[in-house]
Structure formats: C-alpha cells, structure tokens
Design goal:
The chain is an all-alpha fold and 384 residues long. The protein is 68% helix and 0% strand. Helix 1 packs antiparallel against helix 5 (74-90), helix 1 runs parallel beside helix 15 and helix 15 packs across helix 16 (331-367). The longest helix is centred in the C-terminal third of the chain and has 37 residues, at 331-367.
C-alpha cells in the first residue's frame, strides 16, 4: 500500500520502549522551549516582573528584550512537541493506560507547584498577591481556567489547552484504537471543525476545538506520522496545512505594530520564523536527522522541563527581586542565577515528588491497585 492512499500502510516494526530508543533530541527541544518562555517572562514583557526588577525589563536588557519578547512562542513549540509525543504515547495503548500515563505525568509536579507557589506568596516578606484558599483548592483540579477562578500558576492556561487536546485525542483515536487511517481522519476532521467553529463564531465550539492552538497540536501529530513513514504524503499535507494556519494565528495574536503601549514590537516575519523553527525542529527529529544527539543528559533536561515550566514564572519574580534588588547582582547575572535556581528547584520536584509519585499514581489509575506505593517499581521509559 503506497503512502498515497488513506488506508493503513503496513505498520513498522514495534519499537522497543526503553532508554536506548528514546528520542533524546526531543527532550532537549522541550528544554529549549521552556527557556524561551522563561526569557519572555523575565525580560520580554512588562507586568509583575517590572516590580521584581524595580523597573522595566527594557532598561535591564536594552537590546535583548526585543528578542526575549519572542520567547512566548515557546508555548507553540511545546504544543507541536505535545502533538508528536501524545500520538507516539497513545499508539497501541488502551484508554485506561493512556489516561493513567497522562494524569500521572501532569498531576504530581503540578500539585507540588501549586502548593509551593501558594506557600511562598503567603510569606510576609514576599510582596505578591496570593489567591484565596478556596481558589487554591479549585486550582488543584486543573479546571480553574474554564471556571473563571483566579490562577495560582500563570502558565497553567497552557495546561488547560493540553487537557482539551488529550481529551479529543483519547476520544477519537485512543478509545477506538490508533491506526494510521484513524489518525489522519482525526487530524483532517479537527482541522475542518476548528475552521468552521472560527467562521461560525460559536464560543462553545471554540472552547472545545481551540482554533488558535489546534494547528500546533495537529501539526505535531502529523509529524509523528512522518516519523513512522517519511514518505507519507497525507502526513506531510497535515503538517504543511496546519503550519500555514498556525503561523496566521500566531501573527494575529502577537503582532502589534500600532499599539504604543506594547512592551516590544514583534515583527510578523520574526513570529513566522519562530513558528517555523518549532515545526522544522520537530520534523528534523521525526526524520531522524538528530539521532546523533543521544546524550544522556538530554533525558535529564527533558525530565526537568515540566517542573521548571510550572515554577519558573512566579517564583522567578521572587528570585529576581532577591538577587537584583536585595543582593545588587547585575541584570544579566540575575537572569542566569534565576534560571539556575529554577532548574535546581525543578530537579528537587522531579527527584522528591515526580520520581516516587508518578509510577505509583500510574499503577493505581491503570491497574486499580491498593493505595500503597509500590516498592522498586520501574518507571515507564517511553514517551510519558
């Protein structure tokens, strides 16, 4: 069966799910995307970080602030990676196992970050507003965004987008069983549906179908099909169409040439270039061009990315103020020290929260085992 037909091509040999076959370059790209977002939050925008610096970040980074402003597009890069990884993780997996892997991957570090940020913001020496105890409890469900509740973590809006993607993929691909044909139809159907929802201006459908972010998730799914068969014309079509639409949404939401109050004026070309970087980087990994980037430290980098992403913004403000205003460390030194501090905190969360709780929670959700932590259980080393 050629790649020009929609029916499934013969499946490739099953990949051994172990550390040796892990796409470590993908782990490295995750960290790059997280550092892009951190650069944006520390030096590419106004708002609360201005209080941490004691003045505009534009004054702290007279030249770099214009480049840091593009760091917010690290989120779109994350979404492309997520589409690739979720399709890889969900392929050939029963629904219960898929749900358990996603919940156990997201929740332990998230709960720890919510508790940690709430506790730090409640300290008298920290001059940041803490959400109410009631709102903090709602934040533990990850549903604060649609419920209109104050957020503990500024970055958690992206998790709400991820959760909706997981739900759609689980319902239409994992539950009936992942096949090439089903994944192609899912991608094509979602693309058409979000375009219709956008054109019809129907808020409910827009919430479910996420026109602004769907192209990046779908593009990542298409790139996983390319990873399975680089000559799959349908997969390449999915990727190209969603890149073209995704860059439009990115430019529409982030290009602001006439707003005099804008912190930094991004160019349309710069936005398209960063979006293209995300797609091209994941495509290079999908095609095996970066297989030589197989260093073990990249796996560690990938493991630290999620907890780093969760804590870096709000706790970064606290660190910036301490380093820059209290200890009088220059701006660039403060920037690097803050990133290093958040990476260290991410390692602590990974070591003492994720490592013990993730495999236990996965086993409880997937196999309904008694609520006692298993001893000596190895974590899954695939795409979780």
């Amino acid at each position: 069966m050629t790649a020009l037909t929609v029916p499934d091509a013969p499946p490739p040999p099953e990949r051994t799910r172990n550390r040796e076959t892990r796409l470590r370059a993908l782990d490295g790209l995750r960290l790059v995307a997280a550092l892009m977002v951190a650069a944006y939050h520390y030096g590419g925008r106004g708002g609360e970080v201005t209080k941490a610096w004691g003045g505009s970040a534009e004054r702290q980074f007279p030249t770099l602030h214009e480049y840091f402003a593009y760091g917010c597009l690290g989120v779109q890069v994350f979404f492309v990676i997520s589409g690739f990884v979720i399709c890889m993780s969900g392929w050939g997996r029963p629904f219960t196992s898929f749900f358990a892997s996603r919940a156990s991957r997201l929740l332990p570090a998230y709960w720890a970050a919510v508790i940690l940020v709430t506790a730090v913001f409640a300290l008298p020496v920290v001059a940041h507003h803490a959400v109410s105890p009631s709102d903090t409890l709602v934040n533990m469900t990850m549903l604060q965004q649609p419920l209109g509740v104050n957020r503990v973590l500024g970055v958690c809006w992206t998790l709400w987008a991820e959760v909706r993607f997981y739900a759609l993929f689980a319902l239409f691909v994992v539950l009936p069983g992942a096949t090439r044909q089903r994944v192609i139809l899912f991608c094509a159907g979602w693309t058409l549906a979000y375009a219709i929802a956008q054109g019809a201006r129907m808020p409910l459908l827009e919430i479910v179908l996420m026109p602004e972010y769907a192209p990046f998730f779908i593009g990542g799914v298409g790139l996983y099909l390319v990873h399975r068969d680089r000559y799959d014309v349908y997969a390449w079509g999915i990727v190209i169409v969603n890149f073209l639409i995704g860059q439009h949404y990115a430019v529409r939401s982030l290009w602001n040439p006439t707003d005099p109050n804008t912190f930094a004026h991004r160019t349309a070309f710069g936005i398209v270039l960063v979006v293209a970087f995300g797609f091209v980087a994941v495509a290079a990994i999908a095609l095996g061009w970066l297989n030589r980037a197989d260093w073990r430290w990249l796996t560690v980098a990938g493991a630290l990315t999620y907890p780093f992403y969760l804590v870096h913004e709000h706790l970064g403000w606290v660190a910036i103020k301490a380093y820059h205003q209290t200890l009088r460390i220059p701006s660039y030194g403060t920037f690097l020290l803050t990133v290093a501090t958040m990476l260290l905190l991410a390692w602590l969360i990974h070591r003492f929260v994720e490592k013990p709780l993730t495999p236990w929670l996965r086993s409880v959700l997937a196999e309904s085992r008694p609520l006692t932590p298993p001893l000596g259980e190895k974590t899954r080393q695939s795409t979780d």
